[in-house]
């Protein structure tokens, strides 16, 4: 999301004539998507999926997480395509060396990736929280929530380490790295494609492990 914000800073953010959105305002698109998608999921998708699968919950907990992983992977693919187009637009207008230039491209092109990340959070993050709480023995549920937060924390450390490593490697030849301050010379699109590849590998591993998981008796909706 931080990189999405950096992308937005370079785009035309005008709305309603002369009013210009601050780059940080684009961050509200994620939470807004979550608020909108939660009732849609609960009131529309769950009943529809329930009729299709025969389960009141529509999807099992791990299926919900898996679908969220697919949406998240789609979000970074969309982000890579949009960033590639943004870089091409900057080159066409001779803005590559102007770090503070506004690329003639609307901020609205970033909306799909923000929305998809919000939807992915509803499916994956909420699904993981419910999974760790529901599938732990009753007397260890607090430990289950601790494990859930540990997953998020470890993920943050891995993300930071990955970005630092890539930045160091791509700068090693003396040129501009993927995360250089001048985004018109950076390559966030390469990073997004790398994330898409990692997401695909993680999804395959997740499906392989989840397919053999046996739900315990706590999850009544699955048992019914």
From TrEMBL:
Keywords: Membrane, Transmembrane, Transmembrane helix. Its main location: membrane. It is a multi-pass membrane protein. The keyword Lipid biosynthesis does not apply. Pfam families: PTR2 (PF00854). Belongs to the major facilitator superfamily. Proton-dependent oligopeptide transporter (POT/PTR) (TC 2.A.17) family. This is Uncharacterized protein. It comes from Triticum turgidum subsp. durum (Durum wheat).
């Amino acid at each position: 999301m931080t990189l999405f914000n950096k992308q937005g800073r370079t785009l035309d953010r005008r709305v309603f004539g002369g009013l210009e959105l601050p780059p940080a305002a684009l961050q509200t698109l994620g939470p807004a998507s979550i608020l909108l998608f939660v009732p849609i999921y609960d009131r529309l998708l769950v009943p529809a999926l329930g009729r299709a699968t025969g389960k009141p919950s529509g999807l099992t907990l791990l299926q919900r997480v898996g679908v969220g992983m697919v949406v998240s992977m789609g979000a970074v693919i969309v982000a890579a395509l949009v960033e590639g187009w943004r870089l091409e637009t900057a080159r066409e207008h001779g803005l590559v060396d102007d770090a503070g230039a506004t690329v003639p491209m609307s901020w609205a092109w970033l909306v799909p990736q923000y929305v998809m990340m919000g939807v992915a959070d509803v499916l994956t993050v909420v699904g993981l929280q419910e999974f760790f709480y529901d599938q732990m023995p009753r007397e260890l549920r607090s430990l289950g929530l601790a494990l859930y937060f540990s997953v998020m924390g470890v993920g943050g450390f891995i993300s930071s380490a990955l970005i630092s490593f890539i930045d160091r490697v791509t700068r090693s030849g003396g040129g501009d790295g993927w995360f250089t301050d001048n985004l018109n010379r950076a390559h966030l699109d390469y990073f997004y494609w790398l994330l898409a590849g990692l997401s695909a590998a993680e999804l395959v591993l997740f499906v392989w492990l989840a397919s053999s998981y046996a739900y315990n008796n706590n999850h009544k909706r699955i048992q019914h």
